[in-house]
């Protein structure tokens, strides 16, 4: 109930901490909440109240009223409370208090407006303006004053002089035009007028235009059709660039949020929700929210957080304006401004030459960005009026695309040479701690639910690396508390198989002597009895301990209750640590001995206890490796973790932290580190051992990208590494070597094998040749072989993997694409040795499994490819198991033709079949590519130079910007005021304007949409035959129809669907209206006072393979036998072959159906349609049964085939519905 929810939320808020808010309690009135706000300055706290105006509709349908109970309020507080009340409708009390706290802190923040420069940390830097002696030509917008006119809302507008308002309005449009002409899409969400107190604007760019590879899009959880959106909110009136530069950074009431949307702009509700609470949904991506809510709201834009929105929002809100002020004052670039900001140098004079050269040096990667992002509005317009929104958009998108170069916490540049496909943190321990604790990393729960076998792969790699002491880095700074190391599970195996001996000083260490605490242990009751009660309590609730009884395996428990000390209650479920020798043990291995296997002693027995009280950071490297092996051995399998999360997700947000008795915080911390530190993109393209068909159907497995002719004991994954621009560098290398390439075979493929213990580091740091593990008889570089059997030897099969793994990996190797220039390799025989890292792109990861199921039930299909007449390939799946006989798989991509002289072969001694979809970049360079896109060779010395970004050269004309299918006309029209004249080309600062769209015409019909009375209609519930796929298809059809309806004038369209009347997508109510006045039907309707013809469309279970049933509900038409026409039967059904199996086509659109039915009714041959009665009081409805009978009679009369499911349309009689 809403009221109970409201009371519960207020009670919860009383215990929750909000910045500078205290004393939260319910007031005397229903819906009243009282609280105190403590200003930053000294003085008594402010007594404030929030009143829920409709508790019965809380939170969605409730509005808030905010007011102060204190007198003598600081300036701006009262108006701020009134302003907040105008856009907090639908907020929960948590969101409301967070928003009040944030807004009042900004209103009451101290800061001098006279100081033109202020760094956010409080340090002042005096900037000397070179033109300080000259009179400034910047526009003074005048002082704002609140509107006091009676009847006008003073909370949302300002009053300015007519001249200042006109000037500010022009400046707003100038600034936003600059954004649109720079190549971004613009969404006007709220305000953005001179008298608007609060304004919200969205600036977006489609993901497909960011220059990211397919692998980067997958790694970042982006779809190419989606938009990356920057939201900017002005909370205290619009402020142009020059005003923002003058004010201290902290005093600017400008906030930013960045996210992803299915449309170019979110809705105003989504936008305000994004600003309501910075931490709300901070680490939830679009897919996380889909998992929670089941499906997207079709009416929304689907705005959600990016995978790094938390980090990016914090960075932009905290530092962007300060960096902007540094750039403007010192003339440096973004990188130089960040260096200055970090070093916090003192006062800088007017001699810019005094700054070191490094401050003016920009990153080389910036030049590889797409033009719209690489353009620098500030540098290109040093003397012109600058657009603050455009500067913010370029900065935000630039940082997003370069996010892998920076630490996600401190935002400092990560060391040179570091490359990753996903962003991470620097090597500062504090950054890693904040990265994990503040939720900047990926959601572990989301990864386990959506990609369980990829997580299994990552954990297996880490486990094997730790067992063999091959980890390069450790989870330092996460405050992990682990048990003391008392035994060794790792060994010197890391130094076998040709791996060099450990360096001097790295001799095997012995653990420090640890004396476990001796206790009595009641196995049946899971209780510890401590013998000595004189000291401090040895354990606390929530601690983890290891219990060991002589002769039995140690068991890990969580402490549940210490209130009866010296008796301490442990968790009922103990965790038995698995070791490498316990691979593929049954599930019972995850729990300690049960009474069914080992009856517990009657009395407590002697045992020892070790507590998780050792700081992981204090251990040496051997101790760290031992702890990781031990903790991973206590984890449930990924399959068990996923089952727990899926079950939990049915009633609440899935969180592993709630599985307290099974997963220790230390083990969960290691798991989070493993997933978060993976900086490669790994996508499953194969069916894995133990994977059910139901999982295959639901998972995002790209079976169409699987390689063929590969031994069935290998499981395949798509594999990509390097920075987001690594693919672009590979393309650049292809172009630079184009003269030396065979146009038919510009690249070749080869295998790279490496011991299993190395892959944890490879997927994080990439392929390199920093270490010599197998000798380098053929030179320095990355070694490859074209025979997989050769790489199998270097992969060293037989190394045991993580005991909880479903994959049970024994070896791994990658299949890489290499630029086909063997003459430039270090060596091409017998091994391919490539010294240029940019010439190598990892494409696939092959892992060999030891599961008994691999090679039988898991390999459920064979690929049979044949060349059809259309030159496309068709995928035929031969199912081996009956339970998946109905499964359909996506078509396999055509396979690549390899260079005959350099052909990669599998262990089956067959050429590996590589789908063309895996090589989208180099495919365009192949002379026989199926897309017929053959690049023109660029002659040496004639390479086109990169066009310098300029303010005019890169602009789009207004005609070009207005051609977007999705963009709303209002957003384009906003950029030009009613009185603003377009400037001719070559004159003034305005861009060339080819066409100015005219305002939409006024309605030319008397029809009033939405006036139909729903209570008079035969509304139906969803039919019993409804299926998810059919429902999805009909939803799509409905949205298409509504989109057409929205974009077409009513009098031109002639039909109308009221979306609110479609509560069941299997039944649509449609109105035909606005007929030509000369039609007899239109004349009858006018006399009878009928504004529309009401029709019903019902869809069957076989739609779109069978036609919908279309009938008229009202008014009744004159029957054909009585002189009527219009193809309307005597029962109201339509007499049209199109609506029968004889004339229906599955590709028919509903829009086309509506058009043809309307034309049939308007048809004058053989007779025009007429109403049965022109008397207003004699209008009657048709019944469903008579319409169905008339339809059947018409079909039989004309010999048309009746749909097989037609009788199920009898919804009113309970048949089918």
Automatic annotation (TrEMBL):
Amino acid composition bias (Acidic residues), ranges on this chain: 117-149
Keyword NAD belongs to the record: yes
Gene Ontology terms, MF aspect: NAD+ poly-ADP-ribosyltransferase activity; nucleotidyltransferase activity
Leader sequence residues: none
Coiled-coil regions listed: none
Keyword Glycosyltransferase found: yes
Keywords attached to this entry: Glycosyltransferase, NAD, Nucleotidyltransferase, Transferase
InterPro entries: ARTD_PARP, Poly(ADP-ribose)pol_cat_dom, UBC, UBQ-conjugating_enzyme/RWD
Record protein name field: Ubiquitin-ligase Q2
Species this protein is from: Hyphodiscus hymeniophilus
Lineage: Eukaryota, Fungi, Dikarya, Ascomycota, Pezizomycotina
